Amino acid sequence: MIQKNYWIPSKAFRPESELAEKNIWHKGFKPTYEQEEPQMGLILSWHYGRQWLEERSSHEKETRKKIKTGAKFIPPDYSRWLEKRRLNKTRLQLLKS
């Protein structure tokens, strides 16, 4: 009797061409559940989905930290920007002078 796989997790299709666009900031993310045999009960209960969301959020936080530290991120200073654009005199003072 031939044993047949009825469900196999899908894999991402990546073209082998060198002309394909590559993102230099992209770091590979592989969830932990892909290393074990999938169970249909866990698929139906959305356990793998919750696990993927948790692992993805932690992966995003780690990569954001690396990108910001690598690029020497300077946080915006809006108060200084607004202070530069504030008028020294009000409209009434300008009209009177």
Rg computed from alpha carbons, rounded to a whole number of angstroms: 27 Å
Largest sheet features: none
Secondary-structure-based class equals: mainly alpha
Question: Which segments are poorly predicted (pLDDT under 50) over 5 or more consecutive residues?
Answer: none
The end-to-end span amounts to 100 Å
* Helix content estimate: 40-55%
Helix-strand string: HHHH
User: What is the tally of beta strands?
Assistant: 0
Proportion in β-strands: under 5%
Shape estimate? elongated
Please give the count of helices.
4
- The pLDDT mean sits at 77
Question: Overview of this structure, please?
Answer:
- This protein has 97 residues and is mainly alpha-helical.
- It has helices spanning 40-44, 47-70, 78-85, 91-96.
- It is elongated.
- The termini are far apart.
- The model has no long low-confidence stretch (mean pLDDT 77).
Brief description of this entry?
The chain contains 4 helices and no strands. The protein is an all-alpha fold and 97 residues long.
